[in-house]
Amino acid sequence: MNQYLFSMETGTVKFFNEKKGYGFIVDDNSEKDVFVHHTGLVDKISNDDKVSYELAEDQKGLKAVNVRKA
Fold it and tell me: I need a labelling partner for 50 at 20 to 30 A (CA). Which of 16, 30, 37, 58 fits?
């Protein structure tokens, strides 16, 4: 699986479902939703947490990886 990493971004966790293992982050700059999967987490996250992350693109599109609490 090829992934391409982009620059560090910041945002706020819109929601994260621990049982299902995914959620969305609202990007601070674009205000767009970014998909996040539990495999991309460095720290445990919860709704409304401020986070920093990198964008990665794979065959399904953009997603947040290396997600850390800010």
Answer: 58
